[in-house]
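Section 3.1 - Work completed
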Amino acid sequence: MKSLSLLIIALLVTACGGKPSEPEAAAVMAPEATQEFIEVVVEDTSPRPAMVEFVWHSKAEGFSDEALWSATEYWANVASEAEWDLRLAAIHTPRAANENFDFLWVMVWPTLEARDAAWADWAENHEAAWLDLTGETFTYSADNAYGFAPTSGRPATSMNTSGTGVTEYIFCTYREGQGEAQRLAFEGMHGDFVDAYEAEMGAGSYWWAIMNPLFEPPAENSFDYMWANFFASDGERDAIYAAYGESEHSSQEQVDASCTEPATFDSKVIFRAGA
């Protein structure tokens, strides 16, 4: 694999002091050439995927939303016809401007072997045509691709089938003497909170995942894990945050780990296996 670009850490990890109950995260590996929506990433009925990969993209002078979505349709056809073993792909657009990228191309791979095979096929058979098609619309570099190993928290009660959603990423670092056992205990409390919330308010599509970086973060921007929150809408997100703020376990969120504020993205699925 190519050496990882560590800029993504500086990009998403700002100050420590977020919400471990709604933590966010992201880890990444550079591609080597040798619930509807992203809930499919860790659906209970299928094996846990090996990697969620994030690829930085920047808008070019000729960018338009219409051109982007046209390109994603072309790309999805390539993925289908090439029969890549890819579970899901989505576009994540940050709500806050970012100097390093304008949007993320997110791919969910069932195995690292499937990922490597797809990237090799892409480089040999498809990338040249893709660059001709999209060069005036957006750009990307394989050096800015980053991979995380996901583990699902409490699964969504009602899968979001809209194909769009709101995603948050939060980077967390364990405090001295704390570790995975404390995080799992917090996740248990958070799951109980969501159970009680939905018993009162009705079934929802909120769920979360823990993502561990498949690389060594730099010392100046070190973190232990990324907490990712997935919501169907801003309304669902705001309601859950309001209830969480009044919950007993919310006071524990900064005790075991120091976390960044959530980085919020609008998400749209562009490919789903078997669709």
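Second construct:
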Amino acid sequence: MHENICGRSHSTAFNKSRKTVTALLLDLGNTALKWATSNKPEEPHAYVHCGNDVVPDELLHKWLNLKPERVVGCMVSSEKFAFNITRFFNAHGIKWDWLHSERVFQGRDFSVVNKYDNYEQLGSDRWHAVIGAASLYPNRPILVVHIGTATTADVVIPEDDKTQAFIGGRILPGPSMMTEALLTKTRCRPGRIGVRSDFPTNTADAITTAVLEAHLGIVDRSLTSLRKMGFDDPCLLFAGGAAPLFAPYIMQEYPQAVIKHNLVLRGLAMRATNR
């Protein structure tokens, strides 16, 4: 979890010891950097950069004190931020690798096949989230919904006892992007954040309700598509910076849903241990 303040960092758990870790894992998104170590991917930390290119010295030294053998990460944007990170690791002789999507992930106990038409076009964060989800729920159909700057709904299905397949997904603007489009491209000026209503009677509630239900809509359509394939009880995972805001509505609509924020880091850990 992270503070919703630009330029501030927070961690759910910080190991102050100086034990050597195998790899430092970095998930660099549009507004936040999440990180963990390969031996503790379930204990993520986060720094909200909000597009700022400067990497805080405090964060760099915290990483250095972990004495990682190498750095493994994925990046969807913030190239200058990533460049500053890699320059720091180069200066300290630490190997690094920004990973990309691949046609097949071959793990020790399972594999994931990437069915995207052009597998290299699939966002690295989406691919590693799929690997992380597949490692948690082997031989199960899975719908992974990430609600952030953009929102994605990605589907994984079992092919055999040890092989799962990413068969595709949906993308739409995230809640902030949807709202910003209305505020900048129209004359809508709600003046406040609305609440969900079955029949909104003011602009603020109308926008909030529509944004929420648009997101629930891609979940419904994805689940319907899975049911048509014979998968009636898929695992439903939610992640992303906006997922906690949606949590009450998510759990109301889908009681079986699990909010799991470290799927990308878990996927990176899977690949790091295979290298």
